[in-house]
Specification:
This protein has 201 residues and is α+β, with helices and mostly antiparallel strands. It contains 6 helices and 8 strands.
């Protein structure tokens, strides 16, 4: 990845490379929200300057600049594309990947709060039933494509858990170093059986 995917000429990572007949790497410079994988899968730290530059480019170019907002999947994504005025439609999972980045790079509780507007963006676009679609119309907010989409829901759960875990890690007692906040009390108990289980039931 250091040798082929990071491109000095772009000042960021490319989403992929292919190799020509001479064996030279040919980068694909298309900005893609899945570049969040650079830190999400442990290849690089979220605060690595190369990751930061890449994620800034992703946000700058793929955030939908309409009243709707949200993150497109990649540049010129034609899947259910509504208009060429935007790089694509806003996807819930791609928008949540931005929240994951903000959570991963956070070093203070103030940093961590930067993820909340992104999570709120998703929550505000759920249907009254709580259902999330795959994507929304970049001009009307109407759900597009598959609805409900399990991947959208699963990513909400993942992001909220990461947020709570990071909040616990950042909010510690100055005297003893223990967390001031615990998001999963059962994880910290010495017994495994939840106390809401009544013997004999």
């Amino acid at each position: 990845m250091d040798r082929h995917l990071y491109r000095e000429e772009l000042g960021r990572f490319a989403r992929m490379v292919t190799f020509d007949a001479a064996g030279s790497a040919v980068p694909d410079p298309t900005l893609d929200s899945s570049l969040y994988a650079l830190f999400a899968f442990g290849a690089y730290e979220a605060r690595d300057p190369r990751v930061a530059a890449t994620m800034k480019a992703v946000e700058d170019r793929l955030w939908i600049k309409t009243s709707v907002g949200g993150m497109a999947r990649y540049q010129d994504d034609n899947y259910h594309r509504v208009s060429k005025e935007v790089p694509g439609n806003p996807w819930f999972i791609c928008t949540l990947w931005l929240a994951q980045y903000r959570i991963a790079r956070a070093q203070t509780e103030e940093d961590l709060r930067e993820a909340l507007p992104v999570i709120a963006w998703v929550a505000e676009r759920a249907l009254d039933s709580g259902v999330l679609a795959e994507q929304v119309d970049p001009f009307t907010d109407a759900p597009l494509s598959v609805s409900p989409l399990t991947w959208s829901h699963a990513t909400v759960v993942q992001v909220v858990m990461e947020y709570l875990e990071k909040r616990e890690a950042l909010n510690r007692c100055e005297s003893c170093g223990n967390p001031n906040y615990r998001h999963d009390v059962r994880r910290h108990r010495p017994w495994s059986r939840p106390d809401w289980i009544i013997p004999g039931t």
